[in-house]
Amino acid sequence: MVSPFFSGSGRNRFRQDPRDRRTPLQTAVAHVPAPILKVIMKVASPLRLDVISRRGVLLVMALLCAVTMIPGTARADNPIIQTIYTADPAPLVYNGRVYLYTGHDEDGSTYFTMKDWRVWSSADMVNWTDHGSPLSVATFSWAKSDAWAGQAIYRNGKFYWYVPTTNRSTGRMAIGVAVSTSPTGPFTDAIGHPLVENGEIDPTVFIDDNGQAYLYWGNPHLSYVKLNTDMISYSGSVTQIPLTTAGFGTRTGDANRPTLFEEGPWVYKRGGLYYNVFAAKCCSEFIGYSTATGPTGPWTYRGTVMPTQGSSFTNHPGVIDFNGGSYFFYHNGALPGGGGYTRSVAVEKFNYNADGTIPTINMTTTGAPQVGTLNPYVRQEAETVAWESGVETEPSSEGGMNVGWIENGDYVKVKGVAFGSDATSFNARVASATSGGRIELHLDGVNGALVGTCTVPGTGGWQTWTTVTCPVNGATGTHDLYFKYTGGSGTLFNVNWWQFNGGTGTGGNLLTNGDMESGTTGWGASGGTLSSDTSAVHGGARALSITGRTASWNGTTQDVTAKLTNGKSYTTSVWVRSQSGTPSAKATLAVTANGTTNYLQLTPATTVNSGGWTQLTGTATVSWSGTLTGATFYVETAAGTDGFSIDDASFQ
Ligand code: FUB
Asked: Are the C-beta atoms of residues 43 and 52 closer than 8 Å to each other?
């Protein structure tokens, strides 16, 4: 638990004042002057015989470089994850969301003590949903330790996650590959043995425009193999990329490492140019980059992306384009208790220069601006967080994660919540093994305007869930929303999800029973058979399934005729899961006016699968001429007749 403002003790053994985290040695060396550190680094450098021994050297250095905490004052939203320490970011854009794959530094680590990998996602770059840990060292029966820096990629309906971990039988670092049909897992070992092994680390994966996939990795060398289209085997031999000073810059003072390349390559292609962004010149590292006209070089060193900054002696790049912007992910030691082995992932937005070069990017506490707003009228996960104080997350018995270890005064901030003009009530899914407490709804600050208070009762268990409702007054426009949790002493309650409600037709969800918790109420089928499904749900206890479809337009339907406003823009969100296959699903509105029916596509057709839930989302303006006589909301497929399920739908 690394939240900056908590106090007291709960059932979490990690809950402690972060100011108490430093060991006496760390405290003693926290202010070692920089020139002395440089001397230590020079002495340590020749000892670096291989990656593993390098880590030993770094252990000494890290103790000497241990940092002091950041005082608990109000701050912006970088680092983007605060509930645990995270490292080695690997972002992936998929279906309109950014999925962020990270490592996980254990609390209080004094080495790279990393047992599992984590997944987070965001549609707006500021509110990040915790998807927990779908992959760990234990997933690989042949691995013994070290969940270090990996990267995931999507191909042919599956997600492949390449990770470095230590092979028990050889004692060397090897690259494993895990696979899942969902970006959030669970992931399984795809082949039951290392994909490649040469004692080196930090895989990055890239698929070129012609379909050829490449896996690169290395420290101290930089190697690649050509992956086959199955993504779990390769052709040809492992090839070393020549580390020339022209390609990777010049390092002085280390005869064994004449170039700046250290580790953490991130290879991608943009505008016909191949980029290799990497951690440079240990230690402390900065981020440098090289470019090439082909995927295997020859590379030309282009300079610094992010200078050495902050209190982590490693850094690690991840670069994406998302929603028209470019984003640079990295890690630092900026959270309380943070440092070289207790790192945190952060992100900055940037613009490429006109010639394709990358500008110098500095670490900030502000982070990236929000893309759009967050919709409070659809079910939102409690573990979707822009910033938090004092809470943690854990797997929920209802699926996904829940927020827990809540104590009096803890809070969660959700950024840029678009209430519009008519929030009238608030629902939250809660559980408490004690006597509960209250959820206060504040705008724009933890002590900002109070627009509602929900009482949470004891429910008899931390995973015994009930839904509470309370009235809301004054939540209009767009605001940062603070859930301030209050109550007595000790741990109060858990929260799984929340949702605001508003008046229909003016901003609230037009769909009846959008969360499917009332069975098939409100819903129909345009062919096929409808049923309320408890076997696989996106949230709550029920989803809605349709089977026996004989045409792609056979789908789940709901009449919204009486609820529409001519010329109004409506936003759709619905979670879909196929029962077989990977059909393309979409939401459509059939609008009948003056005897003519027009079909308006509400969301892009999006590939869904049977391994997990995929969100369809889009915004469209609904208009008609003459008298409206019918309007039907459909979820259907672009082709095929696979059965599918929907859950947590909104149209507003
Ligand atoms: O997180 C463990 C190691 O530290 C990674 O594999 C390297 O890139 C460095 O960040």
From this structure: no
